[in-house]
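Run log, item B.
One chain of 201 residues. Sequence copied directly from the ordering sheet:
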Amino acid sequence: MSTVEIGAKDVKALRERTGAGMMDCKKALTEAEGDIEKAIEILRVKQGKKIQDLGERAATEGTVQAYVHAGSKVGVLIEVDCNTDFVAKNEDFVTFAREVAMQIAATPTVKYVSREDVPAEQRDAEARIYEQEAADKPENVREKIVSGKLDSWLATIVLLEQEMHNPKFEGKTVQQLRDELTATTGENVVIRRFARFAIGQ
């Protein structure tokens, strides 16, 4: 078993280069003992055409979309980036940005784009609470309980892990839709940032 520590920074770098999901990237990096090039190879073998090495191509084009909910009490601004101006003007790309903006408007708990964006101190504070709650449980299951609760909490605050509310997406997550768009455009689709405005908040 590899003892190489896989950092969030490496996972993020691999995700930006391949468009693969966070857990897939982490597994590939663990298997590759931290070697990014080897991890890309592993992902390509396992996921085939869905994975492309987008290299160091920076996502410097993109779109900013706004959504204001009926009644004008909630509004969202979102920036979604890609590699070329051609894709930035693509209808599917713009629609994706708008749909995600609507998702954010409907989900007040969402604060961060990805798990890597959640500050370590916030995650640690949350873990400490779960550790105290699990203190009376047998030692061998405590870690599992804490890890499970932490996962559930992260899923409520991380945008990429949200299941789309709109039934037409059949329960897909924002990450899955982003991966599909990356695969169809062949470009690095990155949700760069968002802001949610709500009256009185």
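Observations after the first pass:
- Residues 119-157 form one domain.
- The chain has eight helices and three strands.
Flagged for discussion on Thursday.
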